[in-house]
Each structure stands twice: as structure tokens, then as C-alpha cells.
Design a protein that fits this description.
mainly alpha; Arc Repressor Mutant, subunit A; two-stranded antiparallel sheet; globular
């Protein structure tokens, strides 16, 4: 099995992540996974729950479960990653 070096990955490798973080950055507040999915044109909408949970696991999003629904917003680490993605 061969591995692909980071430098030779296709340029779209981080495009979804950048798009996701930009939506949170532009919105500036809390978003539910379905609301984010509509803004990102991410389908099926139910898949947005697992994708945003993964970004939360990486520390790129903050998560609030105190209300009846799950809400996410951009974290400080997510803001740094977004700047890095825009620069690259």
C-alpha cells in the first residue's frame, strides 16, 4: 500500500473544510447542522451532523448541546485553520 505525500494531494483536498469554516466565520454565531447544510448546499442534510461533529472533534468548532438541538460555531483553532487554508 502506498501513501500519497501531503504536497501531491489534489488542490480540492481541503475545499469542503474551508467552505464549512467560512460559513461559520461569515455567519458569526451559532448554527444548527441543518441550517449549516442548507447554506453549504451539503446533502443529504442528515450527513451534516456527523461532518460537523468531526470538525468539533478536531477542535475547529465549538459545540453547544444545552438547548434541544445541537449548535456549532467557529472556535479559535478553527479561525486559525481558516486563515491557513486561505493562505495556501
Amino acid at each position: 500500500m502506498t501513501t500519497v505525500p501531503l504536497r501531491s494531494r489534489p488542490p480540492r483536498y481541503n475545499k469542503l473544510k474551508q467552505c464549512a469554516l467560512e460559513i461559520f466565520d461569515h455567519h458569526g454565531g451559532w448554527l444548527s447542522p441543518p441550517d449549516w447544510a442548507v447554506l453549504a448546499k451539503f446533502y443529504p442534510i442528515r450527513a451534516s451532523y456527523s461532518y460537523l461533529k468531526r470538525l468539533h472533534y478536531f477542535g475547529l468548532l465549538e459545540r453547544d448541546t444545552s438547548s434541544k438541538c445541537v449548535l456549532y460555531r467557529l472556535s479559535a483553532k478553527g479561525r486559525e485553520r481558516l486563515l491557513w487554508l486561505r493562505a495556501g
